[in-house]
Amino acid sequence: TYVIFQMMFAMITPAVVTGGGVGRMRAGAMFVFSMIWSVLVYFPLVHMVWGGGFLQEMGVIDFAGGFPIEVATGMSGLVLAAMLGKRDGFGKKSFEPHKPYVFLGASILWFGWLGFNAGSSLHADGLAAHAFLTTCIIAATALCSWAVIDIINTGKPTLVGTSSGLVCGLVAATPTCGYIPVWAAFIIGAVVSPICYYTTKAIAKGGIDDPMSVFGCHGMAGFTGCIGLALFCQASVNPTVTYGDGLVFGGVHQFGIQILATAVAAGWAAGMTA
Q: How far is CA 254 from CA 54, 135, 248, in A?
């Protein structure tokens, strides 16, 4: 059962990276790339964090995949998009998303992500319920904060914007959901959407064609979640916290190793993807 559950993670993770190559990469090439990427990037990072590797031995914590999934896919998607170059017509014509499909996809993700995060408790227990609740709070708060940005910029919320905010919240919840108090979930959800929104704008302005905002939304939300975990993790929520509470509660040691793990995951993913 555990193998099946973990292979679900292994299957969906390279699918995120493929968003960086939309419109410029053949299906056959993407198929081969995804297999190689899984072996060179995903499996080693999973071992480092969860399989007895050096990051786990150092005391790094990660509830449902902030480092091997969120940070890694964000960095890999950015490298893939940069190395492949721009789509034909990028910057000259509009590539409008299909709004109903965006909304449908985000809705399905929210449903599935609850199993993704709460299931990482590996038991039907109070910790799973806590992870379920904080995941929903972060996602809903991120949806609302992106809607506020849309209202400020355009006068009304947008379907694509709120769907993007929702996904950013789900990503940020992945490493944090089983380690942070409920009140901290509102803070993480409120800050993740502005961070992702302005990063996405900066990436596009810089000339990198990232069609699915893999780095802007997924990668930066992953960074936000991993740093949020380092700030707000609390042993009273989950006693498996190695060195006690996060930085907000005075835990400098846990904060330091979490930041180191973020840098390792980003560097490994970028280098191996290239």
A: 15, 22, 11
pLDDT tens readout for residues 212-222: 999 999 999 99
Mean pLDDT of 47-64: 96
Q: Which SS3 state, helix, strand or coil, does residue 36 take?
A: helix
**Spatial separation of the C-alpha atoms in residues 35 and 177, rounded to whole Å:** 29
One-letter amino acid identity for 146? Answer: W
pLDDT over 80 at 224, yes or no = yes
Task: State which H helix or E strand residue 224 sits in.
Answer: helix 220-232
Mean pLDDT of 100-118: 94
Question: What six digits make up the tokens of 6?
Answer: 């973990």
Nearby residues of 96 by Cβ (< 8 Å), 6 or more positions away: none
Give the chain's end-to-end CA distance (angstroms, integer).
34
Q: Which long-range contacts (CB under 8 A, 24 or more apart) does 101-110 make?
A: 102/159, 102/160, 102/163, 103/159, 103/160, 103/163, 105/163, 106/163, 106/164, 106/166, 106/167, 109/166, 109/167, 109/170, 110/139, 110/166, 110/170
**For position 252, what pLDDT does the model report?**
93
Beta strands in the chain (DSSP E): none
Would the pTM of this model clear 0.90, i.e. be above it?
A: yes
Could you tell me if 200 and 161 are in contact, meaning their C-beta atoms sit under 8 angstroms apart? no
How remote is the C-alpha of 127 from its chain's centroid? Answer: 21
Only one residue has tokens 């980003």, namely: 266
Torsions phi, psi for 94 (to 5 deg): -90, 130
Dihedral sign for Cα 111, 117, 123, 126, please. Answer: negative
